[in-house]
Amino acid sequence: MSSEASPFLRDPVFRQLLQDIRQSNNWTNWFYILRSWLILAVVLTAAFLGLEWILQSGVGWGWAIPLVLVSALFVGAGHHHLGVLGHEGSHRTLFRNRWLNELASDWLCMYPIFTTTYMYRLQHLAHHQFVNDPDRDPNVMQMVETDTWPKGPLQPRQVLGYVLRILSPIRMFGFLRVRIQANAFSSSRDVYRTSENPAPSWPKRLGAVCVVGQFFLNLALVYKGDETLLAIVPGAVWASAMLFFGLLPHRFYHRSRVKPDMSLKATTLQRFTCYFLLFHGLAWASVLTGRPIMWYWSALWALPLLTVFPLYVLLRQFVQHGNGGRGKLTNTRVFLGPTTMNFFLLPVGQDYHLPHHLFASVPHYKLRELHEALLKYPDYQESAVEVDGVVYAAKGTTHSSLVDVLGVGSERYSDGTFIDSSVLDEYDVTEREAIRAEEHASAT
After folding, report:
1. What is the mean pLDDT of each run of 10 residues along the chain (444 residues)?
2. How far out from the chain centre does Cα 214 lie?
3. Contact 113, 83 (CB under 8 A)
4. Is the whole-model pTM more than 0.85?
């Protein structure tokens, strides 16, 4: 189904507006990146000082548990904000300059949460192109595989049961495992998997060992107390990894029908450098201050990254697409409130998710303007769902609550199947005929 069929796109006034608001720039998102890191800095500083007080006062480490848990809620939110800014990078809307977009997205957003813009892009473009298709949308496939995708409309009690069910550590770590695997390796269900022989998996596994190994190597050397070894060994390991992966032929790197903006070899070497600087810096901070800095990082950064952050991602996908249709105007919603839900689950433009799926090239800070412009057109106004409230809708409005939209019957979504072919227009893509075959299969 083509976006050209939309009545609002036949209006020259709207087309001009769309052309204007699609323009990103090289400065606005610096504010959002700095804001996200400021939130993280404030929370991490407060938590660090709290742990230091517990350590110095001798009141017992039991007091650290509530401190770490509360900080994890906000650090996980900070991770989520960074991930969503990296999502902007995957659409090339973080910054107009292509290189600035990739480098800032990777170094400031994606590397800190241990992924890359490009590997996320492959998953996310497929989500846009085949939204809510249980056989091709990676988000839905991952949730189905881990039994976290809601099966049809949910009554209020079932919504509560769903939330309690996904809080299970087993289910949460299962979702995290499947998501990491999908972002790192090409499966047979990947719609952008090239017809060439896939790259072997051992280089990625070896790369993961190099990264995780750097942490434990630095930690061990801190406890060994030999500063000479700490100054030499981690750097030598990093240099060896850089040399090995720098000489590794390109055929051993990930292959896809959607080509990267930056060579994957360059991205890999940058990641090794980033994590070497991180872990080696933490190690020296531990040595020079005499404080357990590496353990603090594990408790205050790594723990939320492995628990709270994937929970927020899962809940976001649930509220945005759970019980949604596959039509152009019914596959997701707009979330006007509450503010708390939007901060933790729907940050940085994720609240205006319907206009984002209609026009993914519009930067997040212009989605509200886009939504308000679209509301002037009857087809959008009649079909777009605006959510304002979790259990009950805001009084005095025609908006729905989240519980309302999750309980709507399937007859509400009878507007066909939307395949967004345009999402690939700006990318270097090969084997387009094979992708069109996937589109045909999805539509039928």
Report:
1. 66 94 96 98 98 92 95 98 98 97 98 97 97 96 93 90 90 91 81 90 96 98 97 98 97 95 97 98 97 97 97 96 94 95 97 98 98 96 94 90 86 76 95 96 92
2. 25
3. yes
4. yes
